């Protein structure tokens, strides 16, 4: 017979070798490895203050014949703590779902049972195949002031725990974030960005249950967001963007009348339109351009200090009268 | 076989529905504000559960999406007529009990009563547009039983809570009604309804 034995972390465990007498000569193994006799009290195996690493297969063999007399799987774990439960309607008015998890692992198998009561009526929460810790309920009534009471009980071999949520129909309505958010520059408008998005695909009837939206945006170089609330439509033009700065933009959604705001959408980035830089050209460059027609090189703009006619000297030492006078004045000053 | 809506009827319905949606939205906002003030001034617990009060129309409905346009209008009208009477009663009790002590609450109740009356009239207009006779109002029944002060307060809480739910439901009902497909359904009800 295969036995499974569940024990709490920190417990003292005594294992008997099946029907063997206390004074029988036996050998115990843990996962195939002999256990030292210091852990034995007669034929009993004593494990004090067990920890998770001591989970495994324990076997007891008769001393001389090495016949297997007893075998058990020891699973060390902890009783469940209060589970975390959340219920939400992202597809109003069709229904809502509840999902749960344990705040800390128990290291042994757990089972979950959920009950949903609306007034005096028991409702069935149909478990989802994926993920496993979720179930959904279809609304049988709408616009009810009667609250829903959801109780989740978690049980394992070492104990049980539960939590309860009480809420009304409107309070848990929270759409999924808007989808397909796109932000584009507006040609010839250095301070505008055009943003568009779509209703979340999980929201079943946006015509009868329209969503409103909250848009937030900021240049990457700043921490403070600008906010705009939009009561209809799925697009907006930002008109006060800083020219040339890259922006980060997000959108959230909420039913027009009830519930709470969705999480923020995936962020999109965009930079407003900027004019192409125009190069300054001198007479020499225009001449060079026209004479060297095969060359595509454009000389960089030069800063003129003085006219060509005022140049003195030649080559690298050529200076103009104005510059020469300044240098001369400084020289006299420092002599 | 029901005739299709004329363009002018469809436009008029859409216009009435739009205005009705705005009315109901404003009404809901005011009821929510009034609820907060009511709970505080009456010394009630906001989370108190109030059992369904006799005579208060419940907004809760099953198979809401399957209702016809005419059903929606008739149920809404019956509800708001009931709320009109309930709010008038609340106002009278408020004045008897507190006189001028709670003038703010009294004014808010009176303003809400006006909105409810206006909305009921709006619903009647929509029903006339559907060429549906507007049901007559039920005559005054026997006088309501005299409640203790605490029972009056609890009933008031129930009235305002249900009215808040109805305001949300009415917005949804009118949006359904404003849809072209629903409008056709409402017209075809005319032939089918007794």
TrEMBL record, chain A:
Transmembrane segments: 310-333
GO biological process, one term: positive regulation of cell population proliferation
GO cellular component: a single term: CNTFR-CLCF1 complex
Record-annotated Fibronectin type-III domain positions: 177-277
Record bears the keyword Transmembrane: yes
Membrane topology: Lipid-anchor; GPI-anchor
InterPro entries: FN3_dom (IPR003961), FN3_sf (IPR036116), Hematopoietin_rcpt_L_F3_CS (IPR003530), Ig-like_dom (IPR007110), Ig-like_dom_sf (IPR036179), Ig-like_fold (IPR013783), Ig_sub2 (IPR003598), Type-I_Cytokine_Rcpt (IPR050379)
PROSITE patterns documented for this protein: FN3, HEMATOPO_REC_L_F3, IG_LIKE
Protein known as: Ciliary neurotrophic factor receptor subunit alpha
TrEMBL record, chain B:
UniProt keyword annotations, A-Z: Cytoplasm, Developmental protein, Differentiation, Growth factor, Neurogenesis
Keyword Cytoplasm: yes
Localisation per UniProt entry: Cytoplasm
Pfam families in UniProt: CNTF (PF01110)
SUPFAM superfamilies recorded: 4-helical cytokines (SSF47266)
Family the entry assigns: Belongs to the CNTF family.
Function summary: CNTF is a survival factor for various neuronal cell types. Seems to prevent the degeneration of motor axons after axotomy.
Protein name stated in the entry: Ciliary neurotrophic factor
Native organism taxonomy: Eukaryota, Metazoa, Chordata, Craniata, Vertebrata
């Amino acid at each position: 017979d295969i036995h499974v034995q569940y024990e709490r972390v920190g417990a003292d465990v005594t294992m008997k070798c099946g029907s063997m007498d206390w004074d029988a000569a036996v050998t115990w193994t843990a996962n195939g490895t002999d256990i030292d006799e210091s852990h034995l009290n007669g034929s009993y195996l004593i494990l004090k203050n067990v920890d998770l690493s001591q989970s495994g297969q324990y076997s007891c063999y008769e001393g001389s014949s090495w016949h297997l007399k007893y075998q058990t799987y020891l699973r060390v774990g902890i009783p469940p703590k209060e589970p975390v439960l959340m219920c939400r309607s992202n597809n109003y008015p069709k229904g809502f779902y509840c999902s749960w998890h344990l705040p800390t692992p128990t290291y042994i198998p757990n089972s979950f049972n959920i009950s949903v009561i609306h007034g005096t009526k028991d409702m069935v929460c149909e478990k989802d195949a994926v993920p496993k810790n979720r179930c959904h309920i279809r609304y049988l009534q709408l616009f009810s002031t009667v609250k829903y009471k959801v109780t989740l009980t978690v049980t394992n071999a070492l104990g049980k725990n539960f939590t309860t949520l009480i809420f009304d129909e409107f309070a848990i309505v929270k759409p999924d974030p808007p989808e397909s958010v796109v932000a584009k520059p507006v040609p010839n408008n250095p301070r505008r960005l055009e943003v568009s998005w779509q209703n979340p695909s999980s929201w079943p009837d946006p015509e009868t249950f329209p969503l409103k939206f909250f848009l937030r945006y900021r240049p990457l170089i700043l921490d403070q967001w600008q906010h705009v609330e939009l009561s209809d439509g799925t697009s907006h033009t930002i008109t006060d963007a800083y020219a040339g700065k890259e922006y980060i933009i997000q959108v959230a959604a909420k039913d027009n009348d009830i519930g709470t705001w969705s999480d923020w959408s995936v962020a999109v980035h965009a930079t407003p339109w900027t004019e192409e830089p125009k190069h300054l050209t001198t007479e020499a460059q225009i001449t060079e351009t026209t004479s060297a027609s095969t060359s595509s090189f454009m000389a960089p703009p030069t800063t003129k200090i003085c006219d060509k006619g005022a140049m003195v000297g030649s080559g690298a030492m050529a200076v103009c009268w104005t510059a020469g006078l300044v240098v001369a004045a400084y020289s006299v000053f420092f002599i | 076989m029901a005739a299709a809506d004329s363009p002018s009827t469809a436009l008029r319905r859409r216009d009435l529905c739009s205005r009705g949606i705005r009315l109901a939205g404003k009404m809901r906002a005011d009821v929510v504000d009034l609820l907060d003030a009511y709970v505080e001034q009456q010394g009630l617990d906001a989370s108190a559960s109030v059992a369904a009060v006799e005579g208060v129309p419940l907004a809760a409905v099953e198979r809401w999406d399957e209702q016809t346009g005419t059903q929606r209008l008739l149920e809404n009208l019956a509800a708001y007529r009931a709320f009109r009477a309930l709010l008038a009663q609340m106002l009278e009790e408020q004045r008897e009990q507190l006189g001028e002590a709670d003038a703010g609450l009294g004014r808010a109740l009176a303003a809400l009563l006006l909105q409810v009356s206006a909305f009921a009239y709006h619903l009647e207009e929509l029903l006339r547009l559907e060429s549906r006779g507007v049901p007559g109002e039920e005559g005054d029944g026997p006088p309501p039983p005299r409640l203790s002060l605490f029972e009056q307060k609890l009933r008031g809480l129930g009235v305002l809570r249900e009215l808040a739910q109805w305001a949300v439901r009415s917005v949804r009902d009118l949006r359904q009604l404003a849809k072209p497909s629903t409008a056709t359904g409402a017209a075809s009800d005319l032939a089918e309804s007794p």
